[in-house]
Amino acid sequence: MGSYTMFAARALSRSSGVLARQARTPVQRRSNQTVPLMGTPAEMEAEAIAQLRARVRRQKEIMDATQHSEAEEIAEMYKWIKISAIVATPVCVLSIVKDVLFVPHPHRLPGPEPDYMAIQVKEFPWECETCALFDLGCWKKCRAEQAAEGA
Description:
Layout: H1 2-24, H2 41-65, H3 70-101, H4 136-150
């Protein structure tokens, strides 16, 4: 139980430091103005430089506010990659096993289709106009009929 209070105290001290830093830094309002105002070339150049310096200053403030080194950031990234792989792999495997073993896979029943499934608006563009492309039984029957008519 003592470790919980230690973690709470540590979290409280960290958050109070962040809040103190945020209270010291002035709030920067963002605007959609990214181009210098019209004026003389020297004024426009000075304003553009001021905007760039403000952006760099803000980025430095953000970098200073985060207390993580690049190595810690990379370690955190790889930690979450590993956690994702550890969670995703069993979920995918169990999903495949469930689908293969427990979910029925209905196949087309042998025999003629009901009328509502055999609706054909126009003929197919091959020699047996009424046969679907991979309906081999229909193709055999059609070719046998054509052979009988030709003989």
